[in-house]
Amino acid sequence: MLRDIFLGFIRVHILYHASLSPVYGLELIEELESHGYHVSPGTMYPILQKLEQSGLLVSEKVNVEGKIRKYYSITEEGNNVLLESKKRIRELALEVLGEDL
């Protein structure tokens, strides 16, 4: 159950970073690890594919030093979902953390 909750946090985190600049899987894995999330490629890439299939991200293949890397950028719909997520996160944090903020 805890894994399901964290997967939601991870999706929001991905959308956030994709809103700043195009991102790729390994970069996101390392970013999330810096926040204490241990996400394997076997978890990350299906999440990215699902976000793309849902219309929240778009991908572009780029040749980087002879290797093809897939970069993901946020779509307008993804940005709308991110903005709504931020509102709900703020409201939840205020309620759950209250005076601890």
TrEMBL record:
Residues 14-82 form the Transcription regulator PadR N-terminal domain. Pfam families: PadR (PF03551). Transmembrane segments: none annotated. InterPro entries: Metal_resp_DNA-bind_regulator, Tscrpt_reg_PadR_N, WH-like_DNA-bd_sf, WH_DNA-bd_sf. This is Putative transcriptional regulator.
